[in-house]
Design goal:
Shape of chain A: globular
CATH class of the largest domain in chain A: Alpha Beta
Number of strands of chain A: 29
Oligomer: homodimer
CATH superfamily of the largest domain in chain A: Bira Bifunctional Protein, Domain 2
Largest interface: A-B, 67 and 67 residues
CATH topology of the largest domain in chain A: BirA Bifunctional Protein, domain 2
């Protein structure tokens, strides 16, 4: 490729919403260009990086028996009705009508298409297990796209679907994918990543893992044990039971607390009572059933984990509308309040064995002191609906937990029979019994992988690509390209490198050395080759690696060989 | 790949709408599966063929300096408003709203996206020319999808866009693409294809070519000279002026013709008057302006070419509604009828110099005889609005023209400045003047190429793939795969072939020889390798080519080497 012809605007003007380094540098280098909110055009170098990532993904998927197919972007409503997701998925799915008024959707994931593809032809356990996958464009109408290619609406994704006779077989295959994903992320150059247990969300199923690049700018919160291998996404993270110290029971008392409603205000009104000694109340409505209020009690220093709460309720939730109820916001407490068809009460585990607590008196301007469970109210059970925090301890080994931010770069799910059951895919198992195959599904976003690599490697000068995914391995800077001798020698090296299979970009522009070096650094090409009047005089070229690990002079004649060596790593 | 695990239903049940051989065989082999009208899932072998085609397309595009990018499937209305196509394109473009009520479209072509991508960064003629291309999913809401992958709604397409300073530069580059397309179609194995001049339709621009696979089942009609290199799509095909013999002028006469209205009826009513001697009238309305009638006169043996007529009118047309006009359908003639603001009259070239013609008398049940232009009515000009037919002669060399059917497999357009002008892309030319770059655009549908190859090669037994695009090069039939010795030898060959880089599928199923041979033929794998108790006894394997050109026994030890030879050549 000739740099003079490369399309893509290298620019210094960056919009203010670009705050993380991968986003900034992908824009500055002209690798991506926004078309509309969450929808991007990839320039040639970005597309080359995507292809390099996809090649690695394909190799690893094929190595574990994956069959690459292609499912459509546009699907009929009917398919999604069969799985029940036409209704259960909200605004993030695009729905439209064709010219004959038939309902279509844009695929955001392809479980339905995968089951549709195989359910007529796979009829026997002998055809199981198998895994089909694709690398295809998807569209998810995200409310907030952000971070360049990190959270977008249109994206290219590798999504795989495996089908099994038994749960054991799925578990075994899941392990293979789990390992393959580690190989993929390592091969594309990521270093600081982990797999964490995660929530299965709208996918259904039970066991799931997310692969996370650890970085301060990640929007996911991860809980990681400082000692053992326990790692989980905040949504599912657990911890050791919190200990509530033993105290002598004191008599129940009602106190005037005036306008103090928030935990902090109550604590301060009461002269600095510890937040751990206050019972916090949080109310929700079930989504689609606003007549029912869910009232959650939790220790005042903790937060509700809405993912866990949704699982407990088996329903989506929205902030409660308390109008028309007799609940007094800011003064809610568990004493004297009863469950009813319109009111569900849930106690978090953190309240188990609490004594002498502060809580709302269910009366404007008043709280209760010294509230004790069992004595003052009853709780059927205590459920885990809290967020783990950095004060908590590992549920596995008891060591201190750390909190990290991360960017999700991949996910794997054990789906179970959610789709094969609803879509009526049946095979005969080895006992001759009709069963619904058990599925797993496995995703990697290609664009997000580009951003994740950029995020891990970029520095103040720009991007920096690992050799395995770099758009070009070598950037030839011809200084004084107007000098015919220089130009000819540089062209000669360019041709030789291309012939040797080394993907190379040749900066043939009439521009200053500083300008060329800056573009080379900004674009993050791993090896810079400088040829100049000075170097030609000495019959050498200068080689330098973008990561700073090498700077050397190589005889002109040895240069191609040396570069091949460096590319091999 | 193991045949026992290959997903995709090989079936004998073919729906009745599948009538052409590529469609039937792609279904029978389980290579494609319908998801909804015009929307397909590609199984692994079809996806492999697509990838092989795409690789060849990429190589040829890169060889002429193409830069592969990726434009989005989903685009904002705004972009298409800029080019004017949001309005000018009809129902075939999918439009929908996102969660914030903003209008989006699904891309059916990407001129807008290409201009959007480069217009801010390309500012000087020094950056020209360049060509950017992508291979991306598109959606076009076709009214009638048909023929498997031939006419679909969702498809993968390579679309390229070049930008030039001058028309000469575009013409020069266009020639390069023209040649590259010949190389592409040859390399993917097509033989019986040609390039024809074509209409530019909704793309705008002037010069365009379509690449056509010649086949009786094609839905396009092509005009080809029997002697010289003249070739054109029916929409734009021209011919030598038709000769109307000299006769003595006879006096104008009005005759009663009763219910005879169609050309055939009038001819027969008048005792067999040649259709060449009758003036045919055809009426249209301008689309979106039904107050205006367009009245076309043409020689009775010819048909109106609506594509040419649209160009003349610079407007889309619909069949005329004559209610409320004083035009008498079936008895229309040019004598005594005048153009007006509501009536436009067009004469086809075929009427130039006609004498003693029959035409309608503009009066129920009457026609005129011996009508002569100049004497009986006046025509300002004669325009070419006729369809060429097999009676016509080559406009270039005068030889007889042939009519062929074809499937369009690619197209190239000289677009001009339609998009750079409307979308305000400006660069400074070498005189320092601001100009709109001149564009070309270049498309190849990947799925349609699969169908075209299938159509050209398939026979009664099934598909047959050229080596360059075959999903697997070798199909190992292990007969008596339950014999451990056979199975081990076959597996050994399979491993060796894979290691040697020969893409191979191994039929490891416990099935009869006939069953395996049939699947191998149906799937169209170029080389069949049979290993059986009989062949092992002789220490050989049997090799056979799908195209019937080879059948031989090869010593077991020589087999891999021989296959590599066959794959190369």
């Amino acid at each position: 490729m000739l740099m003079s012809k490369l399309v893509g605007e290298r620019t210094k003007t960056i919009p203010s919403e670009a705050v993380i380094k991968s986003h900034i540098m992908l824009l500055k280098s002209g690798f991506i260009k926004l078309v509309t909110n969450g929808v991007w055009t990839l320039s040639m170098p970005a597309k080359k990086i995507a292809e390099n990532i996809q090649r690695i993904v394909r190799e690893e998927m094929d190595a574990i028996g994956g069959q690459e197919c292609l499912f459509p972007v546009v699907m009929p409503r009917d398919l999604w009705e069969q799985s029940g997701r036409y209704k259960s998925i909200g605004d993030e799915m695009v729905r439209f009508k064709d010219r004959n008024d038939r309902d279509l959707v844009l695929g955001m994931t392809h479980e339905e298409a995968a089951v549709h593809f195989v359910r007529d032809s796979v009829k026997s356990y002998q055809q199981l297990p198998f895994m089909i996958y694709q690398i295809q464009t998807k569209f998810r109408d995200e409310a907030r796209s952000r971070g360049g290619l990190i959270r977008v609406r249109e994206f290219t994704m590798k999504d795989g679907y495996s089908f099994h006779e038994t749960q054991e077989d799925l578990a075994e295959y899941y392990e293979k994918v789990y390992e393959a994903y580690f190989r993929i992320f390592s091969r594309i150059g990521l270093k600081n990543f982990i797999a964490v247990k995660s929530d299965t969300g709208m996918m259904g199923g039970s066991i799931a893992h997310e692969y996370m690049l650890l970085t301060d700018v990640g929007e996911d919160t991860l809980i990681i044990c400082s000692e053992c291998d326990y790692k989980a996404n905040m949504e599912v993270a657990e911890c050791q039971p919190r200990i509530n110290g033993y105290e002598k029971l004191l008599p129940l008392e009602e106190v005037f607390t005036g306008a103090a409603k928030e935990i902090k205000e109550v604590s301060s009104f009461l002269g600095g009572t510890s937040q751990k000694k206050i019972i916090k109340a949080v109310c929700y409505n079930l989504k689609g059933d606003t007549g029912k209020t869910v009232l959650c009690f939790i220790r005042g220093d903790l937060e509700i984990n809405e993912s866990k709460l949704k699982k407990v309720l088996k329903s989506d939730i929205i902030p409660a509308d308390l109008l028309g109820t007799n609940i007094i916001a800011g003064n809610i407490g568990p004493v004297g309040i009863e469950e009813s068809p319109n009111l569900k009460i849930i106690f978090d585990k953190s309240l188990d064995n609490c004594i002498n607590m502060v809580c709302g008196a269910n009366k404007e301007e008043y709280h209760l002191l010294n509230v004790c469970i069992k004595r003052d109210f009853s709780a059927n059970e205590f459920l885990d609906i809290s967020k783990v925090n950095s004060q908590d301890f590992c549920p596995k080994c008891g060591a201190k937990l750390k909190i990290n931010n991360g960017i999700e770069i991949g996910n794997i799910f054990q789906l179970g029979t959610k789709y094969t059951k609803s879509m009526e895919m049946k095979v005969l198992n080895r006992e001759g019994k009709e069963i619904n195959p058990i599925m797993g599904c496995y995703g990697i976003g290609i664009g997000r992988a580009i951003s994740a690599i950029a995020e891990e490697y970029a520095d103040d000068k720009g991007l920096s690509w690992p050799m395995s995914v770099a758009p070009w391995k070598v950037y030839i800077c011809a200084l004084r390209a107007d000098d015919q001798n220089i130009f000819l020698k540089a062209s000669d090296l360019y041709d030789k490198l291309i012939k040797a299979g080394v993907d190379t970009i040749f900066d043939d522009r009439l521009a200053s050395p500083g300008f060329k070096f800056a573009d080379c650094d900004l674009m993050g090409i791993p090896i810079r080759l400088v040829i100049s009047p000075r170097s030609l005089e000495k019959n050498i070229v200068e080689l330098q690696k973008r990561d700073g690990s090498l700077k050397e002079e190589v005889p002109y004649e040895m240069c191609v060989e040396r570069i091949i060596q460096l590319c091999r790593g």
